[in-house]
Specification:
CATH class of the largest domain: Alpha Beta
Helix content: 25-40%
Bound molecules: flavin-adenine dinucleotide
GO molecular function: FAD binding; oxidoreductase activity
Largest sheet: 9 strands, antiparallel
Keywords: FAD, Flavoprotein, Oxidoreductase
Family: Belongs to the oxygen-dependent FAD-linked oxidoreductase family.
Radius of gyration: 22 Å
Oligomer: single chain
Distance between the termini: 6 Å
Pfam family, one: FAD_binding_4
Cofactor: FAD
Number of strands: 20
Number of helices: 13
Length: about 450
């Protein structure tokens, strides 16, 4: 990988990126709208720590334009890379065709069939808005800017996941383009490809141009967060809130989906004074039910944690981003995860006191409908897991692009996952982020 990166980097720096190949590709792409063939993008969407270096970037409006681009690459033995939102980008394109899906942005709701057909460039926020008008919601996740299709390839752990199951359980069809043509992939038309797409994602050279996915009743939902201060960064943190969360999740009905993040905020002016230099735990909760039902279910956790802030209340799907409150601006980051059958107590103690480069640890409670066998085969890893523990660290974008191995090694977020390894059952591909260490 490092050798490949160096090769790409050197060619680009020298301004000599295979002009012949690029010219040849351009000849093959003359059928496309002139503005569909663009310059090489400088970055990779939301992930600023990876740079794409394709020969040509195509920004198609139609499936037919995707077909032309894929065929042109295939005829020349060149790779095809897809850029949707960039949240999950790991490897930058090195030559070949980069397909930027932003213009494949149609969302069509069928309120009778209770489905949404979404184009490859659609982010969950647009589907949530379109579905809400019909009293429906998609099985979307914590951040509206994430691409609907890329998220679903990894299984998709939604805001109401323990009640809904994996997002991928709701997929009816993928529309796929590859070197051999295009067509709809369903459980009946191609069971093996349908299973692979639902959990492992596309094969090299495959582009999913649209997906049809089932929708759920919009509500009632109750959600928000309990926010608790664990102490000053650099001092031993009090793990009591982490253990209280663990205890509370042991016996929850499927109607409750919850996760916890622990963020060591740097002592910098850009951080609000109340958070500056503090290690803060945020317990994100969504209950499928009204506020009274949610109040009864959350009461034991509230009294154990005694949070500084409590925002749990009636929740519209379009306000779902408030539950986890993730940063909205593009940045450079690296991260990984472990699926575990249970949370190791010493792992929770270590998270409360984790030192060194800034690392955000996330714990998502799984089980419930996520543990049910899929109606049709899939390749999701995590149906047998009790929790997903993720660790994510910010990177300097320039260092990450120039020396990905060095940047990832210095940030070293995976040190937070070590204490959970004894309970490991697998890894979720959607929560592995950013440039790779080797
Ligand atoms: C802030 C944040 C919040 C998140 N929240 C959740 C969550 O709540 N639940 C959850 O399960 N996951 C979550 N994720 C993980 C997210 O689902 C993955 O990062 C996912 O890969 C993002 O897909 P994307 O299309 O947005 O990103 P991209 O980086 O554009 O795509 C990810 C990968 O899929 C490929 N790809 C995307 N679209 C296509 C296509 N149409 N055809 C072929 N290949 C394609 C890309 O080439 C790339 O390799 C979150 C990630 C972040 C950064």
């Amino acid at each position: 990988m490092r050798q490949l990166f160096d090769f790409c980097h050197r060619l680009t720096q020298a301004g000599s990126m295979t002009t012949t190949r690029r010219t040849g590709l351009a000849d093959d792409l003359t059928d496309l709208q002139p503005d569909a063939v663009g310059a090489t993008p400088a970055a990779s969407g939301f992930q600023l720590g990876v740079r794409h270096r394709p020969d040509v970037t195509v920004v198609p409006r139609t499936t037919s334009e995707v077909r032309t681009a894929v065929r042109a690459a295939s005829d020349r033995g060149l790779p095809v890379t897809v850029l949707a939102s960039g949240h999950g980008t790991r490897d930058g394109a090195c030559g070949g065709v980069l397909i930027d899906t932003r213009r494949l942005d149609s969302v069509a709701i069928d309120p009778v069939a209770r489905t949404a057909r979404v184009g490859a460039g659609v982010r969950w926020g647009a589907v949530v808005e379109a579905a809400e008008a019909h009293g429906l919601r998609p099985p979307s996740g914590s951040f509206p800017g994430v691409g609907a299709i890329g998220y679903t390839f990894g299984g998709g752990i939604g805001l109401v996941a323990r009640s809904d199951g994996w997002a991928t359980d709701h997929v009816r069809a993928f529309e796929v383009v590859d070197a051999s043509g295009s067509g709809s992939v369903t459980a009946d038309s191609d069971p093996a490809a349908f299973a692979r797409l639902r959990g492992s994602g596309p094969a090299p050279g495959e582009v999913v141009t649209a997906m049809t996915i089932g929708l759920l009743p919009a509500g009632p939902l109750t959600g928000g967060a309990l926010v608790h201060d664990l102490g000053a960064v650099g001092e031993p943190g009090d793990p009591a809130a982490l253990h209280a969360f663990h205890e509370w999740t042991r016996d929850l009905p499927d109607d409750v989906t919850a996760g916890m993040s622990v963020v060591p905020y740097p002592d910098r002016d850009v951080i609000p004074p109340a958070l500056r230099g503090r290690r803060v735990a945020r317990i994100a909760i969504v209950v499928r039910g009204d506020a009274a039902a949610a109040g009864r279910l959350v009461a034991p956790l509230r009294s154990a944690v005694r949070p500084r802030h409590d925002t749990v209340g009636p929740l519209r799907p379009t306000d779902g981003h408030r539950v986890h409150a993730e940063p909205a601006d593009p940045h450079a980051y690296t991260g990984d995860n472990v699926l575990v059958d249970d949370l190791a107590a010493d792992g929770l103690d270590a998270v409360a006191t984790l030192d060194g480069p800034m690392t955000v640890v996330g714990i998502r409670h799984l089980g419930g409908a996520l543990a049910r066998p899929a109606d049709v085969p899939d390749t999701v890893d995590g149906r047998n897991a009790g929790y997903l523990v993720s660790a994510l660290a910010p990177l300097d974008p320039e260092q990450a692009i120039d020396d990905p191995a060095g940047a990832v090694a210095a940030a070293d977020p995976t040190r937070a996952l070590g204490p959970f390894a004894s309970r490991r059952t697998g890894t979720n591909r959607a929560f592995a982020f950013g440039p790779r260490p080797s």
